[in-house]
């Protein structure tokens, strides 16, 4: 049996037993450790004991569908999510990516392509963004890069790893407009294609957690046609 500590760990969420067995066999033949979950509503509990590097997530699942689960996962899991579905419409793919998925493949997927997509996502997330050694402080907001602790006044703000990485990038260059292309290259090591919404979704979640105004943001501002700006003066209240 493959040692789960010596290779990439994959959680496959798939209720089609035959397909799941085929995927497991192929991934194991490429040196990956794989565990299978057949219901969507038991995945979050499964993450308590199994710490995967990546999740392969089917959309049509009993208990909880993959899109609903995809929206919940960032609060429990910081790694990449690869959606798999027989639903191949652009609308389904866009919705999945907007909800937090990192990539999307249409079933049946060629096994070699699946391995390539998995390896690509794992490469993207292998190196965390560079951080300075000191804490950042803006009014009532404090950011500790070592513990990833965020405090806003007397409140401790709970962020996912992805959200923290984005906040640190913006805050460490406070007062400067960071383009989407720059953010995508820095955090994801890919070019911004003009359509991907992953960073926009993370910005929206950051705003909610940090008490920003969703309709007219004043803490993490959108500079139309340019990018995002962390306002250093907006944290006094």
TrEMBL record:
Positions bearing 4-aspartylphosphate: 58
GO biological process: regulation of DNA-templated transcription
Annotation: DNA-binding region: 133-232
Annotated PROSITE patterns: OMPR_PHOB, RESPONSE_REGULATORY
Principal cellular location given in the protein's record: cytoplasm
Keywords: Cytoplasm, DNA-binding, Phosphoprotein, Transcription, Transcription regulation, Two-component regulatory system
Entry keyword DNA-binding: yes
GO cellular-component term (any): cytosol
Domain called Response regulatory: residue spans: 9-122
GO molecular function, one term: transcription cis-regulatory region binding
Membrane-spanning ranges: none
This protein's record includes keyword DNA-binding: yes
Cell compartments where the protein resides: Cytoplasm
SUPFAM superfamilies assigned to the protein according to its UniProt record, in alphabetical order: C-terminal effector domain of the bipartite response regulators, CheY-like
Record's protein name: Two component transcriptional regulator, winged helix family
